[in-house]
Write a structure and sequence with these properties.
alpha+beta, Immunoglobulin-like, 4 domains, six-stranded antiparallel sheet, 11 helices, 23% helix, elongated, disordered N terminus
């Protein structure tokens, strides 16, 4: 309903009627009253304005506008103009035309629940639709815009399609409007005409045609006629309104002070307001996922894969078992949970997902989440090669969700699963994370950790072709042998630096090597590097294995961890403990008091040019063939 054109139209016909009465008498007025024809329909029409997603504050949603031409001749140029208030922000034109102008200015909207206009700051976006003509004189173009609510409260979208004949000043067109309200957690909307009709009916019910008249509503009228609660959905109005409003009157004082509603409405007598137009409401689930570490402290599960599922619960989703159908019968629906979304936690273990709250049986969702020991990029922890990563399922979070916002935190406490997440955290956060922090690089290759799973040849930990094998004894009871885990991760890093697993796998034949023995230089270098590497990542100059009852101080290795002094060579270049200690002395700082012989402090990449550990390891690799 376009009220702004009502007064000129009445004036126009009033003048014509008066003239004809003067010329032909009273019968002319009767002829005018019954003989007036409805103005012809415009050949250009906006079918409707579709809101394709729930308009939540801070989230973009799409607006679909189909434009139809019934003209028998081409119409060109056809322009579609959108007017929006500053509570909305135009993001982009997704399809259907070409933006020819976009400007900010004072805009005007009719008030859907009160006489007069809404004047506010806003944007006007003009879109060129080109020429419109189709088969049998009918053409259709669909425009899709992307718009984002920026503040909570009232908004209105006006679409106007227009064609102006270049040879004349005549223009034809059509206007459609949508009225809405948005908050960060809920958005509603209705066609302008629907809201306006509800308001006019209620005003007529209370005032019975009297003017001026005070109309009383149970709450702010726009909220009421949109079918929402002012308390649950607060925000800014485009035009101030109260629960008491005057109908069309120039004497507001007389309206408020001398008039009362013609009825005394009670809550039961208010006109029923149907639910606002919206697609299935959305459900936002947000929370934090943590696990218990060796000190029973909650640590975030960072970067982990999270799946959101909808549980099949209703008879429509999961029908009771029945007799086996004959082969010709249609297949029976299989009771299955639905995967709704896959996402990843952030570094603080936070996850967030927004879902359409529509179950297969038409009710709300029955969601639950599953978190895995993988980030699908760097690390995956599993029991064996063909097993999926370890995972933890939340159980049903809510049944038949009503939409809106749901907060759900998960803490992984079970000993076996929490240890798997501890291993995942050590490789991702300490392994990849600290390496990138120190040298600015980390391999793109994913590493798999098999736990509890012994090495391929011996009941010990090892690195073997892209995977770390960690037996149960290193993570059992109170034992958390992270140094062992990161030692094997150091082998993986060396294989990535050298471009081949063969160097690491075959460095120590049969995976046999000893801390205090003379081995091949290749074996000593590989194992010494891995022991140093775990110390560098943790900035702790030692190597500890509770399961192996080993403690090595890299600043001053005990004689038990070195070959006997009587055995050559004196340099110990073929001993892994000596190699690890030498690498640590190159890396660490200078302390003349405790280590007068240690004059090196080259760090990883920040020491003397070409002398940092990273440069050293990359330069040495040329002397060690990959095979």
């Amino acid at each position: 309903m376009e009220r702004r054109s009502l007064f000129p139209l009445l004036l126009h016909y009033s003048v014509i009627g008066l003239s004809m009465w003067l010329l032909f008498g009273a019968s002319a007025c009767t002829f005018l009253s019954f003989g007036a024809q409805t103005p012809p329909q415009s050949p250009l029409q906006i079918e409707t304005i579709h809101i394709l997603e729930e308009p939540l504050v801070g989230q973009a949603f799409r607006v679909e506008v189909p434009v139809v031409s019934h003209a028998q001749v081409p119409l060109s140029p056809v322009t579609l103009t959108f007017t929006i208030p500053s509570s909305l922000n135009f993001v982009e034109l997704e399809s259907g035309g070409r933006v020819i102008s976009q400007r900010e200015e004072m805009v005007h909207f009719p008030d859907p629940v009160g006489w007069g206009e809404i004047k506010t700051k806003g944007q006007v976006i003009s879109i060129d639709l080109g020429t419109m003509e189709g088969p049998e004189g009918k053409a259709k173009k669909t425009v899709i815009l992307v718009i984002k609510p920026v503040v909570s409260g009232e908004w209105q979208i006006e679409g106007e399609v227009m064609w102006r004949d270049k040879g004349s000043r005549n223009a034809v067109g059509d206007v459609k409007r949508v009225v809405g309200w948005s908050t960060p957690f809920q958005g509603v909307w209705e066609d302008f005409e629907v809201v306006e009709t509800r308001w006019l009916k209620e005003e007529d019910r209370q005032c019975g045609g009297r003017a001026p008249c005070l109309v009383v509503y149970p709450e702010e009228p726009l909220h009421y006629f949109l079918g929402i609660s002012e308390k649950e959905m607060p925000g800014q109005l485009l035009r101030p309104r109260t629960a008491k409003m005057c109908n069309d009157s120039t004497d507001l004082f007389a309206c408020f002070e001398q008039n009362t509603p013609s009825l005394s409405p009670t809550p039961e007598s208010w006109i029923p307001i149907p639910p606002p137009t919206r697609p299935p409401s959305t459900l936002e689930i947000r929370g934090r996922i943590t696990f218990l570490d060796e000190g029973h402290r909650a640590r975030p599960v960072s970067g982990a894969k999270v799946e959101v599922w909808d549980k099949a619960l209703s008879p429509l989703e999961c029908p009771p078992p029945g007799p086996t159908p004959p082969p010709s019968a249609p297949p029976i629906h299989i009771c299955e949970d639905r995967l709704l979304a896959t996402l990843f936690t952030d570094d603080n273990g936070i996850y967030r997902v927004v879902l359409k709250n529509l179950d297969q049986d038409g009710s709300g969702l029955d969601p639950y989440i599953v978190v895995y020991t993988t980030d699908q990029a760097r690390v995956s922890v599993k029991h064996a090669r063909w097993d999926p990563p370890y995972h933890k399922e939340s159980g049903l979070i809510v049944r038949d969700s009503q939409g809106g916002y749901l907060h759900y935190d998960m803490m992984i406490k079970e000993e076996n699963i929490s240890r798997a997440f501890h291993i995942y955290d050590q490789i991702r956060r300490v392994g990849f994370g600290k390496l990138r922090e120190k040298v600015g690089w980390a391999p793109s290759q994913m590493v798999t950790v098999y736990w509890p799973h012994p090495c391929v040849f011996v009941d010990n930990a090892c690195y073997y072709y892209g995977a770390l094998h960690i037996p149960s004894k290193f993570y059992r009871g109170r034992i958390f042998d992270d140094d062992v885990l990161l030692h094997e991760f150091g082998h993986f890093i060396m294989s990535q630096m050298y471009g081949s697993d063969n160097y690491v796998v075959y460095a120590c034949p049969g995976f046999s090597h000893y801390l205090n023995a003379h081995e091949t230089k290749r074996c000593a270098w590989s194992e010494g590097w891995a022991t140093f590497f775990q110390a560098m990542l943790q900035d702790q100059p030692d190597y500890v294995s509770e399961a192996g009852r080993i403690y090595i101080d890299l600043e001053s290795p005990a004689p038990i961890h070195l070959p006997p002094a009587s055995e050559p060579p004196v340099s110990n270049a073929d001993n892994e403990t000596a190699v690890a200690a030498i690498l640590w002395d190159i890396y660490d700082g200078i302390d003349a008091t405790t280590e007068p012989a240690d004059r090196l402090a080259d760090g990883v990449n920040n020491g003397t040019a070409g002398q940092g550990i990273w440069d050293l390891v990359n330069n040495i690799r040329a002397g060690f063939p990959a095979g």
